[in-house]
Amino acid sequence: MQKIVVEGGRPLRGEVRISGAKNAVLPILCAGLLADGPLMVRNVPNLHDVKTTLRLLADLGAGIHLDDSFDIRIDPRSVRSHVAPYELVKTMRASVLVLGPLLARHGAAEVSLPGGCAIGSRPVDQHIKGMQALGAEVSVEHGFIKARAKRLKGARVVFDMVSVGATENVLMAATLAEGRTVLENAAMEPEIVDLAQCLVAMGARIEGAGSGRIVVEGVERLHGGEHAVVADRIECGTFLVAAAMTGGAITATHSRPDTMDAVLDKLREAGAELDCDGDRISLDMHGRRPRAVNIATAPHPGVPTDMQAQFMALDCIADGVGVVSETIFENRFMHVQELLRLGADIRVEGHTAIVRGVEALSGAPVMATDLRASASLVLAGLVAGGDTTLDRIYHLDRGYENIEAKLSGLGACIRRID
Ligand code: UD1
């Protein structure tokens, strides 16, 4: 199995190009199923989760064409199956996003229940509730969500809690429903706005994406179209935090500063000088050690849960004490045990971690437990003395395109070994 070895101690310097967002491209690829012509998706990050989604779409019968620059053409006209099998869904929870498109376009969908994952139980009750509100008959049998409807009917859907995935699934389904659907308490993440823009390019009628209330006027059909995926604000945030931890100065290009206010504010609080110019974000620490920051994760526009582990890594070597509260997922502190192995001083009380910054971390073998936890360990490795060896890096490959090449380009000493 492959591992990543990081030798700490070098400030990051230079430019890094930000890829398309993982969390935007996955629903967008699934949205291709709604159309009756091909959808061309550009700025696609080359990630394991993207390949899993393509495998799932191909399994359903869609034609998939990938060109050299990893632009993807999905042709849904050959879709024959409406079953998303356990083997694919279990490896990637986002597979549940085929539920809405299959149901809306083909009148039936059977999607394996994703089950738990490392960061918590992650139920799908809000997805199911939304489909039922649109008139679908839904049952859960033999580990599958089975949904049926002749044609979905527009309705008012009030989510019990803010869910990115449920908002996306019901939004996609509503585009082909008869009449008007109003989604209340909808998630406001930039990835939802990006999905809505793609759907509009395919002929959907959507207003309010990016707010807590999305209104969809159902249409008879969606044609194919073309869409370029929004920049990955989490990848971008990860590099910026890495630079701040190392006392470095980097510029993230092809980014979207307007989608990451909360993260940029926290970096300023940590002592970073930031300059945003179009799609470029420049960060300079002027060689200083970061100050500790308090983090409480929240739905957008709050601090994303997907940045919590990285900010905790920053607090580990910062000046002062940072309090990190995780409010979205029940079990998202698995990186704590590994950070302790590197010499961090962290005390966990329920959903809160109290992180006392130490002068230095020391490299050690550590194990990745989920995607963003892995990123936090790489970041800690960048400032730890000696070698940090990260095992189970398949988590990292699910969500970061060429992370070691990008970090090497910024002057880090990082390599992949077998
Ligand atoms: C998405 C992101 C993930 C991010 C998360 C929160 C993708 C592919 N993944 O995941 O990276 O960490 O948003 O920003 O975009 N919940 C329920 N019932 C439901 C649905 C969700 O109780 O039916 C709960 C979850 O257990 C969790 C919270 O709601 O506690 C938020 O989850 P959700 O926003 O749905 O996350 P995902 O869409 O799975």
Ligands bound to this protein structure: uridine-diphosphate-N-acetylglucosamine
Low-confidence stretches: none
Q: How would a textbook summarize the main sheet?
A: 4 strands, mixed
The chain-level structural class is alpha/beta
- Number of beta-strand segments: 26
Short description:
The chain has 418 residues and is an alpha/beta fold. It is built from 14 helices and 26 strands.
For this entry, give a set of tags:
binds uridine-diphosphate-N-acetylglucosamine; 14 helices; 418 residues; four-stranded mixed β-sheet; 32% helix; alpha/beta; 26% strand
Provide an overview of this structure:
This protein is of the alpha/beta class and 418 residues long. The protein is built from 14 helices and 26 strands. It has helices at residues 22-31, 48-60, 86-89, 99-106, 125-133, 164-175, 190-201, 233-245, 261-269, 308-316, 334-341, 371-383, 394-399, 403-409; strands at 3-7, 13-17, 39-42, 63-66, 72-75, 83-84, 108-112, 137-141, 144-148, 156-158, 180-184, 205-207, 213-217, 225-228, 249-253, 273-277, 280-284, 295-296, 321-325, 345-349, 352-356, 361-362, 365-367, 384-385, 387-391, 413-417. The chain has a four-stranded mixed sheet, covered by helices on one side. Strand 20 and strand 21 (352-356) form a beta hairpin. The longest helix has 13 residues, at 48-60. It is elongated and about 65 Å long. It starts with a strand and ends with a strand. Uridine-diphosphate-N-acetylglucosamine (UD1) is lined by residues 23, 26, 93-94, 120, 122-127, 161, 163-166, 191, 304-306, 328-329. Uridine-diphosphate-N-acetylglucosamine binds at residues 23, 26, 93-94, 120, 122-127, 161, 163-166, 191, 304-306, 328-329.
